[in-house]
Amino acid sequence: xxxxxxxxxxxxxxxxxxxxxxxxxxxxxxxxxxxxxxxxxxxxxxxxxxxxxxxxxxxxxxxxxxxxxxxxxxxxxxxxxxxxxxxxxxxxxxxxxxxxxxxxxxxxxxxxxxxxxxxxxxxxxxxxxxxxxxxxxxxxxxxxxxxxxxxxxxxxxxxxxxxxxxxxxxxxxxxxxxxxxxxxxxxxxxxxxxxxxx
Length: 198
What we know:
The protein is built from 6 helices and no strands. It is mainly α and 198 residues long.
């Protein structure tokens, strides 16, 4: 398993927590304009998380992951600057950016060897769910606007949980390795002390 920078894992936890917090606010907010802006901001956060993991954690499709992360940020940024009056177009943009984020998570889960198998499986599952929801948004026109917005918000909460899980599991694994190394050092000193006493 390849090592990954600790600060990247810490960033995943912080960004995941921020994504969950904003998505929960989006779920509990009644104004559609405010909700759409919050969702776009959360998608910018998820895109940023994928970009930094692609940049600083080595895996086979890292450049693909970086590209999709940047595309997610770009699309979500476009949604933030788009006229709110065209709500349907805005939802389509957000749906497509969610799809791009889903593909980036699948790519990361398939090729990122620094993550544990269970974490990678969870990442892939979250990516697939994001794609399914985004496809539903784009091909089922009779879904209500408010329902679609809330559905995206729920999915973004799940993505936030995945981000925190990935960061936490790898941080804990890193701590465990450090503890094991310290234990070996003390054991080595203890054995050398016994030899000297003899």
